[in-house]
Amino acid sequence: MVELIVVIVTILLAAGVFFMLSGAIGLLRLPDFYTRLHATGKCDTLGEVLILFGLLLYHIFVYSPGAELSVQLVPVKLLFLICFIFLANPTATHAIMKAAYNTGVKPWKKGDPRM
């Protein structure tokens, strides 16, 4: 049972790192502010949640069986953190994009030089 959980945790952590890395590559490669922010907002949110969910599973099944109460509350804190990330990251990305649009940052169009 523990070996299966470790494999699942490894897959979740690897998927999270993949999405974080693809968001970083999108930040470097995409042509303008809006597409860069879109790539990092989506990929970072999913990557962070996958990593935290992997840590949550590891903590529940491998690390904390029979531990004291303060150690058993860590998964609850991780769940709150996952919920916060799902709410805060898209909201912050939208607010930053709206502020950029209101201040006059123009979207990139095909044929424009890259910024």
What do these coordinates show?
The chain is mainly α. The chain has helices spanning 2-29, 33-63, 69-72, 74-102. The chain is elongated, with a radius of gyration of 18 Å. It starts with a helix and ends in a 13-residue tail after the last helix. The mean pLDDT is 91.
Keywords:
single chain, 115 residues, mainly alpha, 4 helices, 80% helix, elongated
Write the layout of secondary structure elements.
Elements: H1 2-29, H2 33-63, H3 69-72, H4 74-102
Helix pairs in contact: 1-2, 2-4
* Amino- and carboxy-terminal Cα gap: 51 Å
Categorize the overall geometry: elongated
Average of pLDDT: 91
The count of β-strands is 0
Helix content: over 70%
Tally of discrete structural domains: 1
Radius of gyration: 18 Å
Low-confidence stretches: none
Question: Would you tell me the structural class of the helices and strands?
Answer: mainly alpha
How much strand content do the residues show?
under 5%
In short, what is this structure?
The protein has one domain (2-102).
